[in-house]
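Record minuted for everyone:
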Amino acid sequence: LLAHRAHGYGVDLEHLLAPDVPTALSGDPGRLRQVLLNLVGNAVKFTEQGHAFVEVHREHEDSSGVVLRFSVRDTGIGIPAETLPRLFEPFMQADGSTTRKFGGTGLGLAICKQLVEQMGGRIGAESEYGKGSNFWFTLPFQKQVAPASSLRTESSILVGKRMWLVCGPGPAASILEQYAGGWGMLVETAPTGGAGLETLRRASGGEPKPDVIIVSRELADMEGLAFANAVRNDGNFADPSLVLLTLLKHRLDLGSLRRAGIAACVTKPIRRSELHDCLAGLFTVDPAPGGDVKAETAAATPIPAVNGKPRILVAEDNLINQRVALRQLKKLGLDADLASNGSEALQALDRGDYDIVLMDCHMPEMDGYTATRRIREQAAGNNRLLPRIIAMTANAMAGDRERCLEAGMDDYISKPMQVEVLAATLARNYYPGHPESV
């Protein structure tokens, strides 16, 4: 919700969920969201350059519950020491001029304090004037008693893979290193494109070569695409998979990405689940043209050609996931058109009629939830035939299906997609008489 605003201000907004934090918890998500939005919104508002960084760590855990510590740090204007003790009082601001410059009533922090305390937690702040602030709060949660099938699992395919990060200093490098290291990957970092190319040259001479390189779109000495082109055009280099790290606000030209050899993109703020699925996809898909998915699944039976084949639109921003979806559909004897975000999906639907839209829930510019609502609104206004919209999401958690249906989606499929599950989902949404349509 705040990433576009932060990036528009030139502020890098990132978040880190520590690997040891349990995620199947019971608490008050509405109040927690309100506190976080207020604190992160302040961090973005009062930071003119640098970053705002949200961290969640485990402070205490036992068999029944856990206490988590949330920290919102920024490199903004900071708060004078004499003001800190009174900061959470109503209508209190560090300097009256901040209201004139940045806006606000001064009530937000007082409300945050009330909400945190109502949930059984504590809240505080640390700051050095002119050098940024750290607002923190702790909250107790009970552990859910959830069936294993409702919990997201991560594959072991990344263990032992070598990753090189070429993304310069800042929170993103630390986040990527912690996540990848937690999955058993061997991680090296380079602060600039030139340093990354030099490291590759040494690897060409016999040192261990990387399996994947994540390169930031903007480096201190070159653009990420220039780095990718240099890797692709130098025959002495190995052939690692290249992943571009970019901001939500950046528009990406798919042709330029393919020419540079970019296999996939990861957007900031970095989502742990999306990063995992992106990297896992690199090692489950044959990168050679025309290659097949390497997942050990039985050959899929094409969907019966009842009343012809459905016209399918795949709305997905990740290049690897696009390729997986198209190849799985091809195995089922089906073709599809592509859209890279919700806005492109709406444009495609304006140009032609589709029977089914496979809609990724998390995309830049316009996510799948918003796009689905727009599709429903537009169809209601002009009496057009509604396509069946099938949600695709990496967050295979309890409650996600309900959220998709509330947005107006007709069905739900979790990523990484299994071709048999895709076949059954398409069948029950396109062929009313099919056994899977119950």
The first helix runs from residue 3 to 9. Residues 98-105, 285-307, 432-438 have pLDDT under 50 and may be disordered. Residues 204 and 238 are 7 Å apart (CA to CA).
